[in-house]
Inverse folding.
């Protein structure tokens, strides 16, 4: 039973346009959410996170939006660049017991076309 | 500062063989983790450690063992390898618990069991 779902396996976007990656979760105990980026043959690298007390967090070209009532979050990349082409994983955790465990989605492969 | 290093990068095992995947971090992080990533899937936590001498099971611990005798090292032992353990294994470390802070990942070990 997937607790973190990324329903789009892949996404193609033109360079300079906005990329929107979506993530849904089912566990109401999750209150901290993260996005990781992964290039082939490398380990994931942290991109951005958001706590459930916020609905938006921004870091340069990357913005994460959280809609707690819908149990949905999204990552916006503006403007998209070819170097953003990678697999993006959404991950979630609770802040209480079990906060050692990150639950990951299956990932979305983003291709930014020059 | 090398971050998180993993050896080997690739390994082919025969069914029933054993091996140890090595992981070392030089960031003086208390928290360390082992994940596996199967094709088309997200990362799943195998074991984690909150400090030297303290380890605990994650989501998918069966068939694996870990030890943490030093802050720097967190080896993962596979006993009696099975085809179901064919996967890419990532080691990670962090300065704060679980998902509440950035986890730093190694480059991974690609293991095939035939």
């Amino acid at each position: 039973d997937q607790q973190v779902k990324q329903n789009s396996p892949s996404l193609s976007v033109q360079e300079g346009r906005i990329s929107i990656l979506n993530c849904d979760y089912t566990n109401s105990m999750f209150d901290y959410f993260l996005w990781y980026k992964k290039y082939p043959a490398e380990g994931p690298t942290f991109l951005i996170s958001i706590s459930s007390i916020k609905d938006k967090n921004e870091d340069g070209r990357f913005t994460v939006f959280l809609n707690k009532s819908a149990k949905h979050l999204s990552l916006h990349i503006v403007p998209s660049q070819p170097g953003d082409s990678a697999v993006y994983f959404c991950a979630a955790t609770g802040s209480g017991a079990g906060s050692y465990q990150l639950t990951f989605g299956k990932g979305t492969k983003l291709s930014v076309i020059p | 500062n090398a971050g998180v290093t993993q050896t080997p990068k690739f390994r082919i095992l025969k069914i029933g063989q054993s091996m140890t995947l090595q992981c070392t971090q030089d960031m003086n992080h208390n928290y360390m983790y082992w994940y596996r990533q199967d094709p088309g899937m997200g990362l799943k936590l195998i074991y984690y450690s909150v400090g030297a001498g303290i380890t605990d099971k994650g989501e998918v611990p069966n068939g694996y063992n870990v030890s943490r005798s030093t802050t720097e090292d967190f080896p993962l032992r596979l006993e009696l390898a099975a085809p179901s353990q064919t996967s890419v294994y990532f080691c990670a470390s962090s300065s704060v618990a679980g998902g509440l802070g950035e986890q730093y990942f190694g480059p991974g070990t690609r293991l095939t069991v035939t």
Remarks:
- The mean pLDDT of chain B is 93.
- The CA atoms of residues 76 and 105 of chain B lie 15 Å apart.
- The longest strand of chain B covers residues 43-51.
- Chain B touches chain A through 27 residues (CB under 8 Å).
